[in-house]
């Protein structure tokens, strides 16, 4: 998820391009297809996407062909990177905060969000905003990463950087992208926000990449980059080298496959 974002939610600078060209095919494309398949079964025509990033899910939603899509993200660089890419010509792009959506009540039939909810500083408030803009019986569909132990590429990078700087460990990946995975907690917070008919399913996929690309993706194409740049002893090049070395030791220098796991959730606004 800004020009207006900060800390763990700041996708700024060159992050957007690395995110789109390396991270999207590596770990985001497969979950996007799964989430779009669920959305395709929803009724209605008006769809809002929040935390759209560079449009991995947006492109899958556009392929469905029957939705009028408004895609938003808190980070202006991500919106700029997504707008105008092939496959989203009819999508309307807008910078918007998922916790303060600039849309009237009951404006959409579907709200979709790929790997954005874990960045919400107030989860219930973010969920309630999605509820507010949905029409009665509207669907909220989103996904979040499972715990880091089930996503070993991210875990190898995190453990390597923490071992290299034990006095000042870098826990961004564990803390935020992989820090909001408990299905019971998420069901409870969706219920508190006003949703019902909640489903939650853990799904498994495969990441295909190389040690070099994975190190570049995580160290320079996520907000982990900011944590590295603020570090007192590590810099971007040294951190990327450390991650590359550890991934190559684990998986070898060529292309490899590693498991991924995420939680896919749907919920409904009461009719």
Structure description:
- The structure is a single chain.
- With 271 residues, the protein is of the alpha/beta class.
- The chain is built from 10 helices and 7 strands.
- The protein has helices spanning 15-39, 56-64, 76-82, 123-133, 152-164, 172-175, 183-193, 211-220, 224-229, 236-251, and strands at 46-50, 68-73, 92-95, 108-114, 134-145, 196-209, 256-268.
- Strands 3-2-1-4-5-7-6 form a 7-stranded mixed beta sheet.
- Helix 1 packs across helix 8.
- The radius of gyration is 18 Å and the shape is globular.
- Calculate the terminal CA-CA distance, rounded to whole Å: 30 Å
Radius of gyration: 18 Å
SSE string, helix = H, strand = E? HEHEHEEHEHHHEHHHE
Number of helices: 10
For the biggest sheet, the summary is: 7 strands, mixed
Which whole number gives the mean pLDDT? 94
**What's the arrangement of strands in the largest beta sheet?**
3-2-1-4-5-7-6
Q: How many runs of DSSP E, i.e. beta strands?
A: 7
């Amino acid at each position: 998820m800004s020009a207006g974002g900060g800390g763990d939610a700041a996708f700024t600078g060159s992050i957007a391009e690395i995110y789109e060209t390396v991270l999207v095919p590596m770990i985001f494309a497969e979950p996007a297809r799964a989430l779009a398949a669920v959305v395709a079964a929803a009724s209605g025509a008006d769809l809002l996407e929040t935390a759209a990033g560079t449009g991995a899910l947006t492109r899958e939603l556009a392929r469905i062909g029957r939705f009028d899509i408004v895609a938003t993200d808190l980070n202006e660089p991500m919106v700029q990177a997504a707008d105008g890419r092939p496959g989203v010509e009819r999508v309307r792009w807008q910078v918007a905060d998922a916790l303060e959506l600039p849309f009237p009540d009951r404006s959409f039939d579907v709200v979709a969000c790929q790997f954005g909810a874990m960045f919400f500083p107030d989860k219930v408030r973010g969920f309630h905003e999605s509820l507010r803009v949905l029409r009665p019986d509207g669907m909220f569909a989103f996904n979040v990463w499972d715990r880091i132990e089930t996503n070993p590429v991210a875990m190898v990078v995190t453990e390597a950087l923490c071992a290299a700087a034990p006095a000042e460990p870098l826990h961004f990946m564990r803390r935020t992208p992989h820090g909001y995975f408990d299905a019971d907690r998420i069901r409870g917070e969706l219920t508190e926000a006003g949703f019902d008919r909640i489903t939650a399913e853990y799904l498994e996929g495969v990441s295909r990449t190389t040690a070099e690309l994975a190190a570049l993706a995580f160290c320079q194409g996520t907000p982990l980059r900011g944590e590295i740049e603020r570090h007192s002893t590590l810099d971007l090049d040294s951190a990327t080298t450390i991650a590359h070395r550890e991934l190559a030791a684990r998986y070898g220098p060529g292309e490899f496959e590693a498991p991924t796991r995420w939680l896919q959730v749907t919920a409904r606004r009461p009719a």
